[in-house]
Amino acid sequence: MPHVFLPDLRLNVQIEGPETAPALVLIHGLGGDLRLWDGLVKHLPHHRILRMDLRGHGQSDTPEPPYKMGTMIRDVERLIEHFGLKDAVVIGVSLGGMIAQGLAVKRLDLVRGLVLSNTAPRIGTVPQWQERIAAVETSGVGAIAEASFQRWLGRAWRDNPALPALRDTLLATNPKGWIGAASAISGTDFYETTATLRLPTLVIAGANDGSTPPDLMRETADLIPGARYQLMRRVGHLPMLEDPPAYADLLNGFLTAIGHN
Ligand SMILES: O=C(O)CC1=CCC(=O)O1
């Protein structure tokens, strides 16, 4: 997979689809990487799709932690500019959805629409993130793995077919990258700025999501006038991985409704 060499950072990216097609930007969450979207991308053959490994994740560089949310937003902004994408629909899950919110506030000229998947203006509490960061500093990413899978996949997490892929990706994440990005989440509260957004938005919740539960997702949708809210059943925090065809149906419905196809 190609790397983009920014002056201070090398980011691993994948860009595919017809060059002149409407653009989509896909942003994964904490402890993930760009492969999260593999199952979904197959259902989107008519779009120009950019996805990346965020700093500290996948095959991208891992600067020393902590990271700031503004820095992570700037990374994605620079990639969009690098590829000359215009009027993109930005689709972010969890941490990726926080980056998407911040990017839309900062660069509405680049963002035509938002898909906020299993995310919120603020996720968790500072003490929760401090505790998780301390555990990863002491014992590595494995220390938070089981609790994360439980939050992400719900009570029957051990039997979830998505578990092996999630486990491989999370456990392969550089602890410094995980700590860096968790620090960015911990320091972020976008309630006031997200409430200023006025653009087509789809908010997707998963019924079994213990990290960003349906009520929180509904509250997030209510911040943005006109945002659509869709609840997916039988999935948790990562519905694009757990049920790619159903996720693609929701997404394609939204893209058609806003004429982004
Ligand atoms: O770990 C979690 O509970 C959920 C999460 C927060 C940000 C992210 O990307 O995942």
Describe the structure.
- Helix content is about 40%, strand content about 20%.
- The chain is of the alpha/beta class and about 260 residues long.
- It has one domain (about 5-255): Rossmann fold (3-Layer(aba) Sandwich).
- It has an eight-stranded mixed beta sheet, sandwiched between helices.
- Strand 3, helix 1 (about 40) and strand 4 form a beta-alpha-beta unit.
- Helix 4 packs antiparallel against helix 7 (about 175-185).
- The longest helix is centred in the N-terminal third of the chain and has 14 residues, at about 70-80.
- The protein is globular and about 50 Å long.
- It starts with a strand and ends with a helix.
- The structure holds the ligand O=C(O)CC1=CCC(=O)O1.
- The ligand O=C(O)CC1=CCC(=O)O1 binds near residues 29, 30, 94, 95 and 185.
- The ligand O=C(O)CC1=CCC(=O)O1 binds near residues 29 and 211.
Give the secondary structure arrangement, pairings included:
Blueprint: E1 3-6, E2 9-16, E3 23-27, H1 38-41, E4 48-52, H2 69-82, E5 88-93, H3 95-106, E6 111-117, H4 126-139, H5 142-153, H6 163-172, H7 175-186, H8 191-194, E7 201-206, H9 214-223, E8 228-232, H10 239-242, H11 244-257
Parallel strand pairs: 3-4, 3-5, 5-6, 6-7, 7-8
Antiparallel strand pairs: 1-2, 2-4
Helix pairs in contact: 2-3, 4-7, 5-6
The structure holds the ligand O=C(O)CC1=CCC(=O)O1.
